[in-house]
Specification:
Number of domains: 2
Shape: globular
Strand order of the largest sheet: 8-16-15-13-10-11
Low-confidence stretches: 444-454
Order of helices and strands: EHEHEEEHEEHHHHEHHEEEEHHHEEEEH
Oligomer: single chain
Largest sheet: 6 strands, mixed
Strand content: 15-25%
CATH architecture of the largest domain: 2-Layer Sandwich
CATH topology of the largest domain: Chloramphenicol Acetyltransferase
Helix content: 25-40%
Number of strands: 16
CATH class of the largest domain: Alpha Beta
CATH superfamily of the largest domain: Nonribosomal peptide synthetase, condensation domain
Structural class: alpha+beta
Number of helices: 13
Length: 454
């Protein structure tokens, strides 16, 4: 099934090179996990996965590591098993097995699908941060589901390749303009100047080798719809966003673990999707467009949740005045001029110092609402949706929030789990308690102690 209009090579963007370098701090994998109410057509799904690599040709490539890296199209895509059916009576365990085997960018391709089959099906779609962030993975799932539906009506359907779609920062700069972009870069430089990584999440053990990297866990809590609405209402009454409330609870929970110095500024990286600047909120292709902002937050031992929220809200709002996240991405784009080795050098330098001192700024990522409308696989119903980010190597830490059908899932993916599970579970318990006490549910209290940890 070779499409005659697809080139054999593609340029890599700065986002691709940066995304590839992130493997120094994590396994770099992103997984969509979709639970269906019945069985899906495995042959049609397999063909949809294959066709998606023609629709977005970069996904059917391997990453070629040279000074100016590029993507090389694999010639054997039609001979690969791209969608595997795994029958089991232990769906959770089989999902974990799938997540434990990463995509290798230098081999490609960049998408693998697995149908975990028991009495119903669970679809796990795996990709690598080299080609896509969470927003890019979401756009891919929209593409995959649309091809799957189309094949039901037209089994001979072949999508048009997205060869000229812009996967770089240029698509954002065209919307923002040069003056505003330079202003954002200037503000970013001022914020980050002489700001060391002066604290870390208080893990019990840092990564010390391959055994720790393989010792992984995912700890999860959920906030039921009633609690989610209480969070939304509380934020609105305090002129704050849901994200402001979540970051406040995160900060107070870490402080409760003894991980912060009182009255001292502590940076927190909060992810931002630059697609918000684009028409329709979508990129020109599946790509990396996630950046971040870094507010400095001050823990005060005697402060109430409301006082902490005001401080978090005001700190974040000051950054929002200058297109947050754009300046950071402009710097990443600038570094790409010097080639892939420069990214590797920066990544090693950034991580080697924290690994020696157990200090690296934590991340908070709200991936937003996972919509049923964007995941339409036809007549078959969907019972649950989860988007799982990379497993971080301690001292690295990322706290992730996602919402589906009004239920908010809060989780941490981490390594060296045997030593670190207790502190991860304690942190999530404290965070949920902070939320429940600040944002009480008036018509009853939901059960928030769901755990999925292994």
């Amino acid at each position: 099934m070779k499409h005659k209009n697809i080139p054999g090579r593609f340029h890599t963007s700065a986002g691709d090179q940066f995304g590839y370098s992130l493997r120094y701090g994590s396994d770099n994998q992103i997984h969509w996990i979709i639970s269906f109410e019945g069985l899906i057509d495995e042959k049609r799904m397999g063909r949809a996965v294959r066709l998606s690599m023609d629709a977005e040709p970069v996904l059917g490539c391997r990453f070629v590591m040279v000074k100016r890296p590029y993507y090389e199209r694999r010639a054997d895509l039609d001979r690969l098993e791209l969608c595997t059916v795994l029958e089991t009576d232990n769906t959770g365990g089989k999902i974990r097995e799938v997540m434990d085997h990463p995509i290798i960018p230098r081999e490609g391709p960049f998408v693998r699908a697995f149908i975990i089959r028991s009495s119903s099906d669970t679809l796990v779609v795996k990709t690598d941060h080299t080609v896509a962030d969470a927003g890019g993975a979401t756009e891919y799932m929209m593409l995959l589901s649309s091809i799957y539906r189309r094949l039901e009506d037209d089994p001979d359907y072949v999508p048009e390749p997205n060869i000229r779609g812009d996967r770089s920062l240029r698509q954002v700069l065209k919307q923002i303009g040069l003056i505003a972009s330079l202003g954002s870069l200037s503000a970013t430089v001022k914020r980050h100047r002489n700001r060391p990584d002066d604290w870390s999440f208080p893990w019990a053990k840092e990564l010390s080798g391959k055994a720790d990297a393989a010792d992984r866990a995912r700890s999860v809590r959920t906030l039921e719809p009633e609690q989610f609405e209480a969070v939304r209402s509380y934020g609105k009454s305090h002129s704050a966003t849901i994200n402001d409330v979540i970051v406040t609870a995160f900060f107070r929970a870490v402080a409760g673990l003894g991980g912060l110095k009182d009255d001292t500024p502590h940076d927190v990286h909060i992810t931002l999707d630059l697609r918000r600047f684009l028409p329709g909120g979508r990129g020109g292709g599946v790509c990396n467009l996630t950046s971040f902002m870094t507010p400095a937050l001050y823990p005060h031992a005697d402060s109430t949740f409301e006082q902490s929220l005001a401080q978090v809200r005001d700190s974040i709002n000051r950054i929002k005045d200058v297109n947050p996240g754009l300046g950071e991405w402009l710097f990443i784009d600038y570094v790409s001029i010097f080639g892939l080795r420069t990214y590797f050098s920066l990544a090693k330098k950034t991580l080697s110092r924290p690994l020696n001192s157990m200090r690296i700024t934590p991340w908070v990522s709200n991936i937003g609402v996972l919509s049923r409308e964007n995941l339409n696989f036809g007549d078959i119903g969907i019972s649950d949706v989860d988007l799982s980010g990379p497993f971080m190597y301690p001292p690295g830490f990322m706290f992730v929030v996602g919402t589906f059908d009004g239920t908010m899932r809060l989780y941490i993916n981490y390594c060296a789990a045997t030593a670190n599970r207790q502190v991860a579970e304690q942190f999530l318990d404290m965070l949920v308690k902070e939320i429940e006490e600040a944002c009480p549910v008036t018509n009853g209290s939901p059960d928030n102690n769901l755990e999925f940890s292994s």
